[in-house]
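The instructor's notes for this session suggest beginning with a concrete chain rather than abstract definitions. Hand out the sequence below and ask the class to guess, before any prediction is shown, which regions might be ordered.
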Amino acid sequence: MGFWQNIEQRQIFLKHPTYLEFFKFSIVGLSGTTVDFGIYAILTRLAHFYFLQAAAISVFIAIINNFLLNKYWTFKKGQSGRGRSEYVKFFIVSIINYFINIGITFVIVKYSHAEVIFGTYNDFFAKVVAITLVLFSNYFGNKMWTFNN
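After discussion, reveal the predicted structure:
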C-alpha cells in the first residue's frame, strides 16, 4: 500500500471523510502558500516590487494553483462538467479571502511593530498570520459553495 493510501485508510478518516478532505485542502493550501511565498520573495527581494503589488501577483498565481489541485484532488470534481462556474465561484471565494489577507498583512506590516522582532521579514510574518486566519473561511466557502454537489 502506498503512502497516500495508507493515510486514507486511517480509521479517523474512514469514520470522518470530511477530516480527510480538510487535510487534503490544507496540503493544497500549503502548496499554494509555497507558490505564494516563492513568487512574493522573488518580486519583493529580487525585482523590488512594493509589498502590496507583489502580494497581489503572488496570491493570484496561488489561486490558480489551488483551484486546480482542489478541483481534481481534494474535492474530486475533475469530471463535473462545471469547470468554468466552479472556477468563477472559487475565484470569488479566493478574492474575498484575498482582501481579508491583504488587510491583515497591511495592518501587521504598518501598525504592529513586528519589525522589532522579525526585522526585514516582518512582511513574511504578516503573510503567515493572514494565511492562517483565512484558512477556515477559504475551506468552508469552497466546500459549501464552489464544489457543493
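Then share the key points. The first helix runs from residue 3 to 8. The chain is about 85% helix and 0% strand.
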